[in-house]
Amino acid sequence: MLSKIKSWICIALLTAASLTIGSLSDRSGGLAGEDQAISVHAEEVTEQEERGLVTNLILYIEGGDGEIRAWVKNQFTLFPSTIVVYLELYSSETYQESYTTMTLEKRVMTGDLNMGDTLETSAPTNGEQKYWKARMRYKFDERDWISKETEAMLYNGQGELVN
């Protein structure tokens, strides 16, 4: 009975956090001046581990001002944990399904992405139209590595999303 109560409490906290965080997750409004075009694509990852850890990581990719930017934000973590995160940006002149056939442009890491923190990186387009993909690898405490990535997105030389 006690484990059912704990499960319901976790679900209630996660639901409340998701509703609150959902309204905060749009970063594009404050990043650029009104006349700049910013294209943002996000992949949201919510993980619930066996020992009760719940976290909400969001992986973004965007372009503008002649560069492509990627970031991972830890929107919410329930219960203390160490979250190691690697963030990578890949590019290719042709569409590729997998990051393994693309060129690694940038890689950054943090030993612990705390709740509310963001890990960011960027790479210049060098005036070339290319497909770009953001990828994150992360793990909680001593658990296995998990990998998530965005779709391959086509950006022009100015960093604007091509439809």
What does this structure look like?
The protein has about 160 residues and is mainly beta. It has one helix and nine strands, in the order αβββββββββ. The protein has one helix at about 1-20, and strands at about 40-50, 55-65, 65-80, 85-90, 105-110, 120-125, 130-140, 145-150, 155. The strands form two sheets. Strands 4, 5, 7, 8 and 9 form a five-stranded antiparallel sheet that branches. It starts with a helix and ends in an 8-residue tail after the last strand. The model is unreliable at about 15-40 and about 45-50 (pLDDT under 50).
Ordered list of secondary-structure elements with their pairings:
Elements: H1 2-22, E1 39-48, E2 54-64, E3 67-78, E4 83-92, E5 103-110, E6 118-124, E7 130-140, E8 146-149, E9 153-155
Antiparallel strand pairs: 1-2, 2-3, 3-6, 4-5, 4-7, 7-8, 7-9
